[in-house]
Specification:
Order of helices and strands of chain B: HHHHHEHEEHEEEEEEEEHEEHE
Largest sheet of chain A: none
Helix content of chain B: 25-40%
Number of helices of chain B: 9
Strand content of chain B: 25-35%
Largest interface: A-B, 49 and 56 residues
Oligomer: heterodimer
Number of strands of chain B: 14
Structural class of chain B: alpha+beta
Shape of chain B: elongated
Largest sheet of chain B: 6 strands, antiparallel
Strand content of chain A: under 5%
Radius of gyration of chain B: 32 Å
Number of strands of chain A: 0
Amino acid sequence: MTEMASVMAVVSLVLYAMSARRQSERRGRAATVALLAAALLLLVTLVLRGIISRHWPLSSQYEFTLGFALIVSTVYLFSERRYRDRSGGAGVVWLVLALLARALLMTPQARAMGPLPPILRSVWLQAHVLTVMVGYGCFGVAAGFGLAALREQRASPVRSSMARRLVEIGFPWLTLGILTGAMWAQRAWGRYWGWDPKETWSLITWLWYLGTLHMSRRINGQRKRLIWCVLFGFSLVLFTFIGVPALARWQSLDTLHGY
Amino acid sequence: MSHQAHTPDPTERQHSGTKGKPTESTARHRDLHLWRLGSRRQVAVGLIVALCAVALVGSLFPQMPSRLDAVQQSEWQTAVRSRYGARADLLDACGLLAFASSPLFVVVTGLLVLATIVCLSGRWRRLWRAAFDRRVAHSTPPHSAHRFVCPADGLGAAARLERLARTCKRQRFRVRTERVDGIMWLRADRHAWARLGSLATHLAVPLLVLAAGISSLLATRHDLLLGPGSLVPLARTSDLLLRLDAFAVAVDANGAPSSYEAQIDLIEDGVAFDRQHLRVNRPIVADGYTIYLDSYWGTPGDYGVALTVARDPGYLLFVIAGLLLLSGTIASLWLNPTTVWASEHEKELRVWLNMSRSDKEGRFSLLHRLGLGGAGQPTDERTADGQSAT
């Protein structure tokens, strides 16, 4: 099913690119439908995994990657409908494809469904993963619209304000995600903050977006700077998600986020 | 979450060029300058970026766990030395092996907290007033309000004002009207209280840092090994003893433990007064300490458990500050406090809009939704003092 979702995402990417080049509304609508189909396939995949494994289907790197791709697609589809703008579609679908490629390249052991270790059986973990993912999804779509705005000669005020709005929507989700993570850590290990590399990078990401939000109210004439901040912020998100486990392995850092 | 510059008393300006021996007023002016600097948004952004940079560099190196005893600390340092060799001393001297307690990180965090408090103290009165101000008629609308003049159509100004009141109610505004000096005024508020969101987020920052400070200074944490049948004191400052009464482990099809549970007897003065079930993610509380089940060892019928006993007086404050931060960010970023004032005049309806987050398009969109766009093109005019009509 993940393979089918990837195929639909590729179709969607081609159609979004063609729609942007030829200003074709019909192709744009078809691209939206293809992305919606990919999102539905991912949703079905996760629901089935949840039913078969009898636990919340966001408990491994594989499931989190699929969930991230699903949330990015869903947030983008909502924003496309809300703002009636498909310009960010290609950038967002590239991200979805990259996430799906990461999931498909994982080892069979990483993709296998299995019983959860006792430490992962907590409602706080479920809340933590879901809220962080929604925040990341909003930042991903903001970066997609940011990329679209950068392609233009002068950064479009509409797209830069869409990017800013998505950061405004995503920021409380990330805040909630960090808080629920801290509460889970308190219940599981008796400490709510331990300067684990993942925690530190979550804080860096959170601080970066906090700075971006502080700045964005005063840089109406400097939209490109806002967009670069949004893009850099999303690179921090990706590093927190993908890079930190690699950093921990490379530097032999102790981490509790190895699941 | 915005920082505004504090406007000094104009009478202070005449002293700004005074040369020679510093007087009381020049010192005050210098204080005001520092105060203004502390409340500037750019300063806050700079400090946030500096904090990011320090944390980023620190995250590249192993961090010494807090609350280690002397032996554990020495073992940890030996392990780091074996990895980094002579560079370990340099990293340690630079504070990179415990960056969260390094002077640089502490100073930058302290400055950020200070800037937040300065910003908060400069704005709380204005935000509080804006959130709870209920005056309908006004002679000086807020500086941030935008003024529109809508020429009266066939209905006349009074009827338009009534229609505006109805439309505002439909749009979930809270509407009040008042007649002053023969002029009918209308005030409609939506999410006015959300203006306090900025206060909540700014207040949460020092509280979070305070909670972290309390936790790092006052929290205690130690490990306990509880063998079958053995009695172990809960903590040095507690008279309670713990005894492992029973332990059960369930395994999955692969033989891996899927769940485990310990029954712990709490004993005081030789009497077991309570029995508690302890599981991973379900700690129990006894004598002000929280007991966590970490792992187990042994063979069926002869199990022992590893526990962590912790007490963290900063946690409650952390939760309160976290909830304050969350509610503040939601109010600031998801809601858009809006106030509409309108007054009827013979040939026109004068309307002021005050929206926390809006561009020109957003303001015109609201005007259209309120039924004020169709009768004629409103004149968007930012009021500097609220006196001039057009």
